[in-house]
Amino acid sequence: MTQRSIEMVIGRLVTDEEFRETFANDPHQALVDLLERGMHLTVTEIAALVATDSALWAMVAEQVDPRLQKVSMKSLDNE
Known about the structure:
Layout: H1 3-15, H2 17-25, H3 27-36, H4 43-51, H5 54-63, H6 73-77
Helix pairs in contact: 1-2, 1-5, 2-3, 2-5
């Protein structure tokens, strides 16, 4: 079990808007990208993350203080 890796992925999901959007659109690819950057996740952990409703991450992100959020530059470009 790679608890620290899970904590890091969940942290990114709730604080990094661009990663959250990428994950919502293609969770497998988002996780493959992390694995290629050295993140360690088991097959079971990947399956559990993919099985979790992506709406949960957005809902939790809305509750996190904006000062802790990493805003997507894509969102700013669309304004």
